[in-house]
Write a structure and sequence with these properties.
Helix content: 40-55%
Radius of gyration: 12 Å
Structural class: mainly alpha
Shape: globular
Strand order of the largest sheet: 1-2
Largest sheet: 2 strands, parallel
Number of strands: 2
């Protein structure tokens, strides 16, 4: 949702709250899910970091930490 509507970060922060995102992955029913890896998420993690989210929760903690 945040990647589709990045203004949410500003709205949430405007209310004095933090924004944590999870999961950054396709839904199980989507074809992309079968090819989901840490490498395939790199750009999304980077974009979320640039947008200013406060936390990214991921199944690939070590890999996402290296990006963020």
């Amino acid at each position: 949702m945040v990647l589709e509507e990045p203004e949410w970060v500003e709205v949430v922060h405007g209310h004095g709250l933090k924004i944590h995102v999870y999961p950054v992955s396709p839904a199980r029913g989507e074809p992309e899910f079968l090819e989901w890896t840490a490498a395939s998420q790199h750009d999304k993690w980077q974009e979320l970091s640039t947008l200013g989210v406060d936390a990214v929760l991921s199944d690939f903690a070590r890999e996402s930490l290296a990006v963020l």
